Amino acid sequence: MPPLIKGFVRVVDAVNYRLGRIVMYGIFVMMGILMWSSISKTFFLPSLWTLEMAQFAMVAYYMLGGPYSLQLGSNVRMDLFYHDWSNTKKAWFDAFTVLFLMFYLGVLLYGAIDSTTYSLKYNERSPTAWRPILWPIKITMCVGVSLMMLQAMSEFFKDVARIRGKEL
Question: InterPro entries this protein is in (predicted)?
């Protein structure tokens, strides 16, 4: 494989690995928000912001942790026949199917950018009583989808290298 592709794979994998290791602690942020929600509903006046903030934290956790999950191969896979295949056949299958993932992510990114542009232009707010601005979470979604697209490309290059009998 050319040095440019090797460098791309190395950088994308390093960024997504480090970010994934940080973001995985976001579950504790969510737990803290939901615990405060329970405490405030039980002992004080209920907080308006807790449910929506927990949803925002979950979106950030999911979108920024997805590339890390893909990198580690911990995504859900229908393993009816796959586990019996040789590594080369798995690489062929993965290289083919990751193209569908990249198409889907491209469409998703197009919609996310369009929605984020609208949100920034009109300072869009949530229709709830709390009314937070929505562009920060939409930017987070765009970043997460972009990183997932880059990780999918990295996985594609690794599969092609595996087909050729090399490792990246």
Answer: DctQ, TRAP_DctQ
